[in-house]
Amino acid sequence: MNTHQSGDASRALTAAEVEAALRVALRDEGILLPETIEDIAELEATLDLTGVPTPDPRAFAAKLRAATSDAKVVAFPNPKPAPAKDENLAMAARNGGALSEETRRKMDKRRSDYEAQNRRPEDGQK
Question: Is the pTM for the entire model greater than 0.85?
C-alpha cells in the first residue's frame, strides 16, 4: 500500500494526517486498533478466534496465590528520625546557628498545632 503523501512535500502534516498514517502503518503490520463496537464486531466476524484462549482471572489469581504462598514477606522499616539527626539537619539549614529557647518553643508549638489540625484517625497518628 502506498502511504506516501502526494503534493507539496514541504507542507507540515496535520495531527489528523499523522494519526491516519500511523493507523494505516500499524494495520499493515497486523496491529489492530478497534475504536468502536462496530470495529470489534467486524474483527470478530473476520478473524478466526477458535485458537485464542480466553484468560481465566480466577485461575490466574489462584496460581498467583500458590506462587506467593511460600514467599518470605519482609516488612519495610518505618524508622522515626532521631532527634539528634533532626537537630543536625536544622542546624545545617541555619548554617550552624543555634536557636534561642523562645524560637524553639514557638517552632514546637506551631508543629504541634499543625499536627493536631491535620491528624487523620485512619493513619493512626497521635
Answer: no
